[in-house]
Amino acid sequence: MLWVAVIGLVMTAVAVTLAARRVLFLYNLATAGPPAPERIEYARNNVGAEIKAQLVEVFGQKKLLKWTPSGTAHFFVMWAFFILATVYLEAYGALIQGGVTGRPDFHIPLIGTWPVLGFLQDFIAVAALIGLVAFTVIRIKNSPKKLGRRSRFSGSHLGGAWLVLFMIFNVIWTMFLFRGAAFNTGNLPYASGAFASEATAALLRPLGTTANEVLEGVGLLLHIGVMLVFLVIVVNSKHLHIFTAPLNVMFSRRPDGNGPAQPLRIDGKVVDFEDEDLDGDRLGRGSLKDVSWKGFLDFYTCTECGRCQSQCPAWNTDKPLSPKMLILDQRDHAFKIAPYLMATEEQRADLHEDVLALLDKPLVGEDGVIHPDVLWSCTNCGACVEQCPVDIEHIDHILDMRRYQAMVESNFPTEAGVMVRNLENKGNPWGMSEMKRADWIEELASREDDPIEIQLVDEKMPEDTEYLFWVGCAGALEDRAKKTTKAVAELLHVAGVKFAVLGPMEACSGDPARRLGMEYLFDMLAKQNIETLNEAGVKKIVATCPHCFNTLANEYPQLGGTFEVVHHTQLLARLVDEGRLVPVTPIDEKITYHDPCFLGRHNKVYSQPRDIMAKVPGVRTQEMHRHKDRGFCCGAGGARMWMEERLGKRINTERVDEALTTDPDTISTACPFCLVMLGDSINEKKNAGEAKESLEVVDVSQLLIRSIKGQPAEPPAEPAGTAV
Questions:
Q1: What CA–CA distance (Å, rounded) separates 576 from 580?
Q2: In whole angstroms, how far apart are CA 291 and each of 59, 284, 297, 299, 515?
Q3: Which of 23, 29, 208, 382 lies 20 to 30 Å from 417, alpha-carbon distance?
């Protein structure tokens, strides 16, 4: 067996050397960019959360198992890598012991002859083999040749996937070959338990002892050789995620990559727009040399599974954005210009002309790595981040590129420029007078039946108030959203909750500016609002707009503004549970609920709006096919409320088409943006005769106040022309 040991060790040395060179290259490429100190700091300070993430996401495969067939197959294949490591430990032990003593009967000390381990090794190998069959069926069934862009594998590197499936198959059959022969020669550590190896041994036994001895050595070399070739393939392919996925999960944002947009950084430090030495040309991502090591870890970890793509509202409405391809296109280009990225300034002048030619290709542009239509199609809905099984943070990549395009290149959709000027000059996206923010207050106070007086903050919050009601731009200025504002104000009044509003003192939260990439404008608006809130002594805020809610609760703390913020559905659901709001009048309607992205996926508020509707007598709810964490966007997020949708099918039309399949009497939601977008599409459907005239979209709060007061449904408000 000496010859077997020599060949095996030589193969190992060659393969490990090749793999190590590749790993060193990947490390040097990733660390050529700016640092990400906040990722390391969080991981260091939250060890418990990181251990839980590894147990749940890596070992437990939580996200993958959301897709049951493929998730189950992947679960067994992944665990095969862990458990069959013990087989390779035995294989190398047999290799070395056979070379030294001539008898390859090695077993792992203490546990190496335990029948349970032998059974577990064979079981997971058989389960992985079944998983390979499942993967094969899934890939054939979802072939891009058959389904086109409806296939989640559209755009993926398909050849590499088939090669890896073939290599895993080789690992399994060579394992059974050498273990079956070893059983016949008496060298298998397990006298029982290894059922599949014993079955293979029964097939090989008629060949005789000599043949089995030869097959044991050949099988051992084949098994080790396949693994070594596989190792080299993995570190040079998309299956690098086998090693990088645990790292990407470790350094991803917690509790997940949705929620707050991340602060703008240069060289790992948060940008201070008041810094006189600020380099204005380095704001955002202008080239791949601006990508941090965490961004490269995202590139390396993408499995090309297409889950993100299959859930993306832009991709599903025939727009060019695929979150998967956004990552892959950057990764592939990074590999092409790697010599430049890793070179010093002196070395770059001596680079090959092919590399230098690639440097002329802009990161974003008509002929760039990323087409502008890809960048500006994103609604920031977070479906991609929610579905990604390896915690890639697609929105962070998009926002960094948008920041450079918006602030450095001044290159963004024309109509969004109007919104930016309005925010700068008037503090709201529509450019209305700040005094208009108080109109709804006058409307409530001047009602003939049951007028309500709303307290305005006069420098300081009144002493007897519990909440500041953050109305938001849409809630104060858009006629349809104002109905929600008045309903919430009345509900709080009925429940005896003391609250006040800022009125003209309130400015836009800054969400549209930040999601467009205008970070400096967000910074200005946010600091202005934080100063106003702090001077007024505000501690607790209730907001009706999920975009404002997300910004106030999750992003203002980045600038020192820490407040207790709740969404109105959270507060109303609690008031109903406490008996302070009692819906009594039946609303005999079939209602389907649309999850706002910034309330649901970004902040995990799914149950409270549904809980409110469940307490309203007579309401019959019917979920749309895509709901909760797989909910479909209305199309207004990511500042797209103020951009024309020229490509593909309108996202709000797609969503309303899905809602109509439930044959609803009413569509409910909990966001003014969704209210506007869905309402516009419903009006189009009515004009085309494709929806019943009585169909309306309303906020959950409107349903609740109707039931409490016994009011009939309000007539629909006229669109204010707020969305384009």
A1: 6
A2: 29, 9, 10, 10, 19
A3: 382
Residue 288 and residue 334 in contact, taking contact as beta carbons nearer than 8 Å = yes
Token digits for 702? Answer: 């409107």
Residue type, 605: V
- Cα 640 to Cα 649: distance, rounded to the nearest angstrom: 14
pLDDT digits (tens, 9 = 90+) for 221-264: 999 999 999 999 999 988 899 999 999 999 998 878 788 999 99
The answer to whether residues 535 and 459 touch, using CB atoms and an 8 Å cutoff, is yes
Residues forming beta bridges with residue 621, ordered by sequence position: 591
* Secondary structure class of 663 (helix, strand, coil): coil
* pLDDT for residue 714: 61
Residue 445 has which token pair?
């106070």
The residues, ordered by sequence, that sit 6+ positions from 265 with a Cβ below 8 Å of its Cβ are 34, 271, 292
Collapse the DSSP code of 214 into the 3-class scheme (helix H, G, I; strand E, B; otherwise coil) and give the result: helix
Strands 467-470 and 540-543: parallel
Beta-carbon contacts of 42 under 8 Å, excluding residues fewer than 6 positions away, are 254
φ/ψ region of 428 (left if φ > 0, alpha if ψ in -120 to 50, else beta) reads: beta
- Report which residue type is found at 487: A
Contact 327, 397 (CB under 8 A): yes
Give the closest residue to 161 by CA, choosing from 225, 222, 241: 241
Cα(592)–Cα(667) distance, integer angstroms: 5
Q: Which residues contact 657 (CB under 8 A, 6 or more apart)?
A: none
Better pLDDT: 527 or 344: 527
Structure tokens at 529: 């609002």
Joined together, the tokens standing for residue 96 give 């070395």
Beta strands at 590-593 and 666-669: parallel, antiparallel or unpaired: parallel
Q: Provide φ and ψ at 104, rounded to 5°.
A: -80, 60
Query: 313 with 649: CB under 8 angstroms?
Result: no
d(CA 389, CA 303): 9
Pick from 337-351, 437-451, 498-512, 651-665: least confident: 337-351
Contact 518, 407 (CB under 8 A): yes
Please report the pLDDT score of residue 721 as a whole number.
45
Look up the pTM and report it: 0.91
